[in-house]
Design a protein that fits this description.
8-stranded antiparallel sheet; alpha+beta; two-stranded antiparallel sheet; single chain; 132 residues
């Protein structure tokens, strides 16, 4: 399977529309984004599903959903998640999008979830998901 990258903050990003077909290419993408302010991007699969990823240097979030915008929307829940009222803001179209802390996890875990999606086109079996 392959996924297509779409930056939701920097609409003129020259990487928009690139197809990633290997875990190495995906890892390279994550490395190339590490200096950015927290923002959202999509990885659209060939199978009509996508991940919407909140990306910051040290944490991120992952939503799994159909790529036509229809529900269900499933959020990966961070291990040992605590609902303490805190959130992380990710930019999309210069608009801050607050993400509850319970959905924010280490970026290494976000990358693992994305790699499994790239391989199999499904939500990761590692960890739990919550419908929002």
């Amino acid at each position: 399977m392959s996924v297509t990258f779409q930056d939701l903050q920097q609409l003129d990003n020259p990487m928009n529309g690139i197809r990633l077909q290997s875990e190495a290419a995906l890892a390279g993408l994550f490395r190339s984004l590490s200096s950015r302010k927290p923002f959202l991007f999509e990885l659209r699969g060939d199978n009509d599903f996508m991940l919407t990823i909140g990306f910051a240097a040290n944490c991120g979030s992952v939503q799994y959903s159909p790529d036509d915008g229809a529900p269900p929307y499933l959020m990966a829940v961070a291990e040992n998640a605590v609902d303490d009222g805190k959130s992380v803001e990710f930019l999309a179209g210069n608009t801050p999008t607050p993400m509850p802390g319970r959905f924010c996890q280490p970026i290494s875990q976000v990358e693992k979830i994305a790699a499994e999606f790239l391989k199999h086109g499904v939500k990761s079996a590692a960890g739990s998901w919550e419908q929002i």
